[in-house]
Amino acid sequence: MKLEEIRRKIGKIDRELMVLLQERMGLALRSKKFKEAVSDPEREEQLLARAEHLNLDLIERSFTRQLLKTIIEESKRLQQEDRKLAAFQGEHGAYGEVAARRFVPTGAYIPCMEFIDVFRGVEEGHFDLGVVPVENSLEGAVTQVNDLLTTTHLKVIGEAKVPVTHCLLATEETDYREIRQVYSHPQALAQCRGFLMRNNLEPRPFYDTAGAAKMLARENPRAAAAIASALSAELYDLEIIKEGIEDGASNTTRFLLLSREPYSQGGDKTSIIFATAHEAGKLYGVLRLFAEAKINLTRIASMPLRSDPDNYSFFLDFEGSDRDEKVAEVLKQVEELTISLKYLGSYPADTVES
Amino acid sequence: MKNLKLASREIAQRTVVNVAGVEIGRDFVVIAGPCSVESEEQTLETARAVKAAGADMMRGGAFKPRTSPYSFQGLGIAGLKILEKAKKETGLPIVTEVIDPRDVTWVAEFADVLQIGTRNMQNYSLLKEVGRAGRPVLLKRGMYSTLEEWLNCAEYILSEGNPDVILCERGIRTFEKYTRNTLDLSAVPAMKELTHLPVIIDPTHSTGRVSLIGPMSLASVAAGADGLLVEVHHNPEQALCDAEQALTPEQFKQIMNRLRPLKAFIDQQEKSEVI
User: Fold this and answer.
1) pLDDT in tens, chain A (354 residues)
2) Which domain, by its residues, includes B255?
3) Does residue A287 sit in the same domain as residue A229?
């Protein structure tokens, strides 16, 4: 092994240590939701003793104890901070985390395997907040999320329109000329089809964009790159070869911030879900109420009802808060015209042009 | 001039190359910027200065074909990213050189115009590659090449299906040593007789002397050129390459201030002659 290579490997191990520590701190914060006291001397001693038994020739017991104590101290300090646990779907670096960082600048961002884990986790109190994508400007509604919105009891307390800027990422050692395979989520690969074709690159579907970046950083397969967010490049120490490689000019995903409690300050945008009886003019009747009250609708989407596939539920977003008299009046009338009405919440609209 | 099926003047209509709204072949287009991208600060500062002085596009090399393998070879992809940033800020389209066929598609992702340098004019595999890249190509004249050889190289690019070729006269080798090369100004009207492609002038490399760049720029307007490609560095003394021939932003501005009225005057004359 050459000195340069040894140094590179040391650098890589240091980074992996940090990533693992980050994961450990996240778990420590999650454990806080289950216990009363932050300090648990018995459990600490158990941890220290077990680590000491590892019998590693280069790691002295005293060093192990000292190192772990430092880590435990830091995680206790973190637990005492009032950090909101914001859950998102995907690996660290996913666009969900990009949105979560915008919603909660000083939060702790918790990756979840599935959307349902985000919803359940918030409902059961394991997380404070959930961040889920509800629609994308190119691909349309995220059906799984819309379905979960109808079946769970969480409130929408915010929205964020996050520009999806796909980046081509590779490890530092990778020469861009040698890249042949590109790993990413099938949707991201599809959105960058033109770029891949122009540069003669072969798309390789992967379960997640950020997951592909993580795999690249850990395994460093030959001649490979990933398509993921710029945040992923930062988190996994990858080089951005090209930013903004998607074919379409504007690709934005709208994320919702979910909580057990409704937004407390009124807001200026409202989301509801309703279903009407299968009769002529019923939907029109509902929409007419909004038109007559001069309430601007910002989104209307339909989805087949799981319980009755012949019928639909409608997702309606409109300007105004349920605290506005006009809105409250319309909602009362909507209730009379529908067979089900679910109020998701009123929240501040994301008006930041990105 | 046989075998010039696509480049010859027999095609009646003159080619206008549209680069993000800048029309080379219709307007007098000034492309200015540093020889090479050295740093973000240097590139952005120069970009702002040339934009303020009225340049239409920006140049800057990320891949440099240097006489010595030990000279600065350019920043590569990192340099392209800096150019992209400069474009984002100033809105100036980017002209940058590509020297390796393996890099063509990658450079095309960042650049608006691909430049083929004088040393690569007859690099036929590179010409074919840029002919397929879907970007306009600025083809410099080889320093030892005849007009016919030059046109044949344009033909290579055109024959791959790329109609957007801009020719750039950058001086040829003669026995004269005072100037770096000899600017063949007659190439402009000559090429206008031979081809429908736009022709621009590089007064920097052809003279190699700051004092000669202004006069030759004005002369190229009078000769009927479609534009200029000129090197400007915000601090020429510290430039990593071609330091002795780069204009300061102030010198560039002075040339621009004289050049635009001259062009307007000539256009006015031509218009009244037609009437």
Assistant:
1) 789 889 888 988 888 888 889 889 999 998 888 866 667 788 888 888 888 787 788 888 889 889 999 999 999 899 888 899 999 999 999 999 999 999 999 999 999 999 999 999 999 999 999 999 999 888 888 889 999 999 899 999 999 999 999 999 999 889 999 999 999 999 899 999 999 999 999 999 999 999 999 999 888 889 999 999 999 999 998 999 999 999 877 889 999 999 999 998 888 999 999 998 888 888 999 999 999 999 999 999 998 877 777 888 999 999 999 889 999 999 999 999 998 899 999 999 987 654
2) 17-274
3) no
Q: Identify from A198, A200, A240, A247 which residue to disrupt to test chain B contact, counting B C-beta atoms within 10 A and taking the largest count.
A: A198
Assess whether A270 and A343 both reside in one domain.
Answer: yes
Q: Identify the CATH number of the domain in which residue B198 sits.
A: 3.20.20.70
Residues A13, A76, single domain; the answer is yes
CA-to-CA dists, residue A181 to A172, A195, B103, angstroms: 16, 13, 17
| Strands B94-97 and B113-116, sheet pairing | parallel
User: What is the ipTM metric for this complex?
Assistant: 0.82
Q: What is the DSSP string of A287-327?
A: HHHHHHTTPPEEEEEEEE-SS-TTSEEEEEEEES-TTSHHH
A176 touches chain B (CB under 8 A): yes
Q: Is A199 in contact with B105 (Cβ distance < 8 A)?
A: yes
A200/B105 CB distance under 8 A: yes
The two tokens of residue A77 are: 């300090």
Residue A319's domain comprises 266-348
The rounded distance, in Å, linking the Cα atoms of B220 and B210 is 16
Q: Cα distance from B163 to chain A (closest Cα, Å)?
A: 18
In a domain, A75, yes or no: yes
The total number of structural domains in chain A stands at: 4
- Considering the domain boundaries, does residue B90 fall inside one? yes
